[in-house]
C-alpha cells in the first residue's frame, strides 16, 4: 500500500442469498482525497459503505486501512468508527431539541449523552473547537438556534460538522445534496472540498450535476465492480458507462 493510500479494497466479494452484490471489487482511496462513487441503483454503493464501516463482512477479499495496513475486516463496527471512519447517512440525524452548539459539543465527545452536555462545563478548547467547526460548516450565526428549526440543508451541514468533530480520517457521505436548492448545494460542495483537504471524503451520489461541482476523481460501480475510474468527463465518455446508465 502506498504511503498516500488510506483505504485499499482488494478482491472483495459479498453475496446475499447467492446473489453477488459486490463482485471482486478493488480500488483505493488516498489520504486527503475527495472521491465520488456513482453507479446505477443496485450497483453496490451502499454495500461498499457497509463493508468499510463493518456493518457487512465480505465473503472474500481484503480491506486495508492506514499506514500500518490493518485489516478493517477483523474489526467491529464501533472499533472501525474509533479508528477514524465516519459515515453520514442520507437523512440528517441531529438532536432536534438541542441547540446547534450543543449538538456540536456532544459530537466532540461522541460518548457523551444528550443530557450530560447540559451539565457539562465546557473547556475553552471545546469552545474554540465548536466555533471552528461552526465556521467550517457555515453555521456560526446559528449556534444558539434549536436544531429542529434549521432548514434541511443546515441540518445536513450540522451533521457533517458533528462527524468532523470526531476528526475522522475517512468520511463517507451518502447523497449529501439530496433535497437541497442550488445555493445549498454549492455550500455543501464547499464544505466537502474543504474537509477533503485534511482527510479522505467519499461521496456516494446519483446527481451528476452535483458530482460535476465536486470536480474530483469518480469511481463508477456496476454490478459490484469498478466499471470506470477517472474524471467525470472521462468516465461519462466511456461507452460501457453510457450503456449502463441508459440501461442497455
Ligand atoms: P446501491 O446502493 O448501489 O443502490 P446496494 O449496495 O444497495 O446498491 O445493493 C446492491 C445489490 O445487493 C442490489 O441488487 C441489492 O438488492 C442487493 N442487496 C443489498 N443488500 C442486501 C441484503 N441485505 N439482502 C439481499 N440483497 C441485498
Automatic annotation (TrEMBL):
Classification via SMART domains: AAA
Matching InterPro entries: AAA+_ATPase, ABC_AA/LPS_Transport, ABC_transporter-like_ATP-bd, ABC_transptr_urea_ATP-bd_UrtD, P-loop_NTPase
Keywords: ATP-binding, Nucleotide-binding, Transport
GO cellular component: plasma membrane
CDD domains documented for this protein: ABC_Mj1267_LivG_branched (cd03219)
PROSITE patterns: ABC_TRANSPORTER_2
ABC transporter domain: residues covered: 7-248
Full protein name: Urea ABC transporter ATP-binding protein
Organism of origin: Marinibacterium profundimaris
Lineage: Bacteria, Pseudomonadati, Pseudomonadota, Alphaproteobacteria, Rhodobacterales
Amino acid at each position: 500500500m502506498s504511503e498516500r493510500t488510506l483505504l485499499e479494497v482488494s478482491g472483495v466479494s459479498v453475496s446475499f442469498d447467492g446473489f453477488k452484490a459486490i463482485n471482486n471489487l478493488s480500488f483505493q482511496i488516498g489520504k486527503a482525497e475527495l472521491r465520488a462513487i456513482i453507479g446505477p441503483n443496485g450497483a453496490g454503493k451502499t454495500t461498499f459503505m457497509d463493508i468499510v464501516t463493518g456493518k457487512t463482512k465480505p465473503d472474500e477479499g481484503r480491506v486495508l486501512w492506514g499506514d500500518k495496513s490493518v485489516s478493517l475486516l477483523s474489526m467491529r463496527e464501533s472499533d472501525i468508527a474509533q479508528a477514524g471512519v465516519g459515515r453520514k447517512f442520507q437523512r440528517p440525524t441531529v438532536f432536534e431539541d438541542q441547540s446547534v452548539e450543543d449538538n456540536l459539543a456532544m459530537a466532540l465527545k461522541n460518548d457523551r449523552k444528550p443530557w450530560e452536555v447540559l451539565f457539562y462545563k465546557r473547556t475553552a478548547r471545546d469552545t474554540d473547537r465548536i466555533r471552528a467547526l461552526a465556521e467550517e460548516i457555515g453555521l456560526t450565526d446559528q449556534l444558539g438556534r434549536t436544531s429542529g428549526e434549521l432548514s434541511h440543508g443546515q441540518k445536513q451541514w450540522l451533521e457533517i460538522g458533528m462527524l468532523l468533530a470526531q476528526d475522522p480520517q475517512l468520511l463517507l457521505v451518502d447523497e449529501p445534496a439530496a433535497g437541497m436548492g442550488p445555493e445549498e448545494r454549492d455550500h455543501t460542495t464547499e464544505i466537502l472540498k474543504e474537509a477533503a483537504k485534511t482527510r479522505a471524503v467519499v461521496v456516494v451520489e446519483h446527481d451528476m450535476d452535483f458530482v460535476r461541482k465536486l470536480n474530483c476523481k469518480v469511481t463508477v460501480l456496476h454490478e459490484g465492480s469498478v466499471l470506470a475510474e477517472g474524471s467525470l468527463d472521462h468516465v461519462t465518455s466511456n461507452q460501457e458507462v453510457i450503456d449502463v446508465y441508459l440501461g442497455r
